[in-house]
Amino acid sequence: MKLQRDLFLGFVKIHILYHASQEEVSGVWLSTELKRHGYAISPGTLYPTLRKLEKDSYLTSSGRVEQGHRRIYYRTTARGKKALEKARHQAHELIDEIEEWE
Amino acid sequence: MKLQRDLFLGFVKIHILYHASQEEVSGVWLSTELKRHGYAISPGTLYPTLRKLEKDSYLTSSGRVEQGHRRIYYRTTARGKKALEKARHQAHELIDEIEEWE
DNA sequence: TAGGCTAATATCGCTTAGCGATATCAGGAT
DNA sequence: ATCCTGATATCGCTAAGCGATATTAGCCTA
User: Fold this and answer.
1) SS3 for A35?
2) Where is the Transcription regulator PadR N-terminal domain (chains A, B) (predicted)?
3) C-beta atoms of A94 and B13 within 8 A
4) Are the C-beta atoms of residues A94 and B19 closer than 8 Å to each other?
5) Which of A77, B35, B86, B93 sits most deeply, having the most CB atoms within 10 A of its CB?
6) Any idea what the CATH number is for the domain that residue B10 is in?
7) First to last CA, chain A
8) Nearest CB partner across the interface for A95, out of B3, B91, B98
9) Per CA to C1' distance, which residue is closest to D9?
10) What is the pLDDT of residues A40-91, one digit of tens each?
11) How many domains is chain B built from?
């Protein structure tokens, strides 16, 4: 895998957990949102990732039809929120460590 | 893979790039340092990772003997530093996004 | 100087993630 | 009914991650 992806796939998942903790989010919406943050994530990665997160109880889903299109909306579970908390903490820790001070 | 690892392996690599940009670091040293930061990373992951980073020109290595033991020291290359810069930026971006404000 | 000891690094074998490309699927329009 | 479009799913391959185990280099002891 290319390093750039490799370094940031974790970031992407944290973004997902965060957004789904704030509101219901669909795959497409996430796709655009992530692009906005500089992450190009293909459907072949995104959708399996969402399902995996759901399978592992970090997300729950509910499908429905909107504007003539089937959509699946995700929300972060309690377990996911706990993971998100940990991620916040680790991210701060990382920044504190690697920050340049000069 | 367990989510906890999954989310943070990128963090680990960023740590590595950072430390090796500050000073020469060996596998063992990194192992202890990472543990200090809460990352339990096994030799079966760490050493292949270092070699991979070297192979992809993010690190350079130089082996030598110290206190009776063979060690391999790594330093971050220009390319690695560039990746590190990007990582700093993305990490800030992540924090700004997922931070709780209440 | 052969043998064994220890610490550092490397490899093996397996499972599973990531991903580009392609397929499927539901609803709306004609 | 058929076609179109946009959202989600699957396939097939490559390679990452990892626990367990092996290897390696130098030191020590007698």
Assistant:
1) helix
2) 16-86
3) no
4) no
5) A77
6) 1.10.10.10
7) 33
8) B91
9) A47
10) 999 999 999 999 999 999 999 999 888 788 899 999 999 999 999 999 999 9
11) 1
